[in-house]
């Protein structure tokens, strides 16, 4: 984030300009020892400081690979830092889906007399009358839901969390190891969400059914950057250790993925449905508590972030939020699909490894 606008404001007033000691890309240091700084939305970077005031910019869109709920985590970390000064905490954001800290504060405090919390909601032109109404009207015609949030400060009704936190955490078995070893006579299934190694992780899930419950035995992945051939070879060794003779891959996988897996002596098949359909098919298993997951941080974070969108035609789709990822979640949902009794490939593992 740039400090240019802030420094122009300070230097525009002679009294304030004299207080500026140094300027960098992210900090403005004043002579009194005060620092005006910008930070990423990480709860780790704000700890151990005395803060005079904090501004959370676009809090409804915060994403952080280190936390499933970065808005709440940063909020909790900042409060002790503000305690000594008693300074204000300001959150400014375009509304998004009906979840998170912004929506919670709006729901509990908007329009209510509270000495400590003030919630203001208003359309863009209310705060900036120079905006052209015809621009807003055009956006409303093109996409009413998106424009309602962007220009009229309305929370979106077409986007919701796919899974609530309770449904996810009841599926997590905290007492089991991260990976369960292969056992004789178990029909394991394997699913991969491959990546070329630049932006997405290369992920895999191996699982099996125990009665009406799906057990995710292995959830593993490689974050970018990486050599996809090397990762494929490593994962192929795991698949073979569980006695599987084939893997199923993401519906949109490129042809090199099939070639890479076949070169490892394994059958490779593409999934019979896209990721969105896999998520929707997995929902009943979560609701009935028929899934057992390891305590895998990235997987849990991605499951919490999944968004369910309803189109104007009433059709539901599920995907990661803008700028987010669902590589581990996709591998899990795909493995759940191929582990169904009518789709699972029986493992040849008999305890020889």
What is the element layout, followed by pairings?
Layout (H helix, E strand, L loop, with lengths): L3 H8 L2 H4 L2 E4 L3 E4 L4 E3 L16 E4 L12 H14 L5 E4 L7 H10 L14 H4 L5 H10 L1 H9 L6 E3 L3 H5 L19 E5 L8 E9 L2 E10 L5 H14 L4 E4 L5 H8 L4 E4 L4 H13 L3 E2 L4 H9 L1 E4 L5 E4 L7 H12 L15
Parallel strand pairs: 4-5, 7-10, 9-12, 10-11
Antiparallel strand pairs: 1-2, 2-3, 6-13, 7-8, 8-9, 13-14
Helix pairs in contact: 6-7, 11-13, 12-13
CATH architecture of the largest domain: 2-Layer Sandwich
Question: Under CATH, the topology of the largest domain is which?
Answer: Nucleotidyltransferase, domain 5
Q: Bin the strand percentage.
A: 15-25%
Which strands sit side by side, in order, in the main sheet? 11-10-7-8-9-12
How are helices and strands ordered from N to C?
Answer: HHEEEEHEHHHHEHEEEHEHEHEHEEH
The coarse overall form would be: elongated
Counting structural domains, the number is 2
Q: What is the makeup of the main sheet?
A: 6 strands, mixed
Q: Could you tell me the mean pLDDT?
A: 89
């Amino acid at each position: 984030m740039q400090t240019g606008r802030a420094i122009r404001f300070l230097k525009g007033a002679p009294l304030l300009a004299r207080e500026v000691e140094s300027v960098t890309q992210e900090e403005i240091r004043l002579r009194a020892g005060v620092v005006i700084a910008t930070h990423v939305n990480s709860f780790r970077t704000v700890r151990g400081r005395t803060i005079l005031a904090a501004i959370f910019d676009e809090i409804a869109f915060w994403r952080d690979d280190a936390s499933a709920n970065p808005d709440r985590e940063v909020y909790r970390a900042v409060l002790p830092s503000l305690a000594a000064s008693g300074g204000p905490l300001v959150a400014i954001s375009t509304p998004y889906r009906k979840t998170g800290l912004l929506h919670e504060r709006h729901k509990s405090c908007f329009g209510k007399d509270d000495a400590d919390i003030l919630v203001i909601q208003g359309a863009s032109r209310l705060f900036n009358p120079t905006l052209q109404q015809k621009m807003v009207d055009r956006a409303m015609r093109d996409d009413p839901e998106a424009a309602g949030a962007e220009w009229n400060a309305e929370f979106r009704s077409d986007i919701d969390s796919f899974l609530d936190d309770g449904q996810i955490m009841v599926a997590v078995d905290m007492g089991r190891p991260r990976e369960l070893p292969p056992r004789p006579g178990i029909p394991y299934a394997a699913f991969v969400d491959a990546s070329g190694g630049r932006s997405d992780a290369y992920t895999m899930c191996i699982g099996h059914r125990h009665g009406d419950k799906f057990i995710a035995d292995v959830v593993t992945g490689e974050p970018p950057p990486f050599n996809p051939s090397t990762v494929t070879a490593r994962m192929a060794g795991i698949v073979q250790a569980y006695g599987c003779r084939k893997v199923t891959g993401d519906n949109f996988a490129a042809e090199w993925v099939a070639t890479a897996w076949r070169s490892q002596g394994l059958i490779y098949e593409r999934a019979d449905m896209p990721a969105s359909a896999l998520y929707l098919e997995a929902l009943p298993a979560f609701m009935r508590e028929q899934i057992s997951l390891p305590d895998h941080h990235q997987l849990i974070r991605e499951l919490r972030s999944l968004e369910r969108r309803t189109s104007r035609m009433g059709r539901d789709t599920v995907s990661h939020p803008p700028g987010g990822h669902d590589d581990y979640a996709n591998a899990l949902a795909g493995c759940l699909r191929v582990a169904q009794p009518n789709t699972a490939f029986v493992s040849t593992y008999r305890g020889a490894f």
